[in-house]
Here is the input.
Amino acid sequence: MRLLIVTALLWLLPATAFAHGRRHETLTWNWDWWVLLSLGICIWLYTTGVLHMRRRQGAARLIDNGKLACFFAGLFTLFVALESPIDTVAEQLFSAHMVQHMLLLFVAPPLLVWGRPPIAFMWAFRSPARRSLGWIWGRLGFKRLFALAMSPGVVWLLFSGSFIFWHFPKPYQWALANEGVHALEHLCFFATGLMFWTIVIEPSGRRRLTYPATLIHVSTTAILGGLPGALIFLAKFPLYPQQTADAAAWGLTPLQDQQLAGVIMWVPAGLLYVVAIAWLFAKWLQDAEQEELKRVARLSAGLSAIVLLPLVLGACNGEAGAQPSSFGDAGRGAALISYYGCGSCHSIPGVSGATALVGPPLDHMGKRIYIAGMLRNTPENMAYWIMHPQKVVPGNAMPDMGIGAKQARDITAYLYALR
Here is the structure.
């Protein structure tokens, strides 16, 4: 995922704040060019990708209106955090600064992740461009670097470490005194937030962690992340004198401002962790139920195979059957795989530029027992899956590409050769 700080570009009027009957200076909106440029790039990529997907049968299901709304809600949250008067007040109040941090860590990232931007960004480009990007991604080592950075242990360390480090008094004061360091602090929060919530939600592809392991991942992060807020709230003296110096202008003592900031760090973040844990537990139960159904289905299929084996063997003596070599042309299949840009989602041996990890790798496809965990791996089933993946598993990450029956047979012949 491209870790960009993006915002929602809306026309809003400057706000004027009042406290205890005394009017403060007019609070201004920021219009930083780099924020607006990031906004423009991300909105263009996302909307272009979604429009392309909705022209393809089945692909529109990958990003429905709910995910679309989540993505733009995430953009708007970033806009509020970085460009609204919250940013101005954050220079005067420690508590307002913590609101800004919570938006960058716990609100904007999960909303953006839920919107599945990598898929939309990929669809913003035509097939040749996607293949070129896939080649660059694989050949220049970005794929390995990304896989390492997104390993759960590394994400846990970066997210928790960044949160704790930047809330130590000295690094925090350092960020206040230098705009460049302050921007780096916010980028660290947002980038690690995207990484963390991607591990938790996993909107597409295989999960990096099982649901029980993800529950432990989130629970330990919640415990560790709650410590700074608790310590700030319970402190008997101001820990951030430079930040709390202007609290009196808002009717607060420095210690009250600090205690309010501690509560904001401690309670809302804790509630969001609880919501995430509850959601993961529900998904775990749902996944366990589906696995049990699949186990029963596999057992039934095995018993049926034992009963029907004599008939199958008799039929095989009378006809050659659907062998991959006679099912389609593997050479044409490889060319079709490249033409349809399958390598922009999958890693496929023998196909140039097919090194992506959005979908599962297709090596040893001819030896696998099931397709998408649902269909028995036969040439006929594979061809049907290639033509109609959304009919087999509605809402999965593979769109209907409009592939014809003969083309699907050729692609199947190539995939079956991967043993």
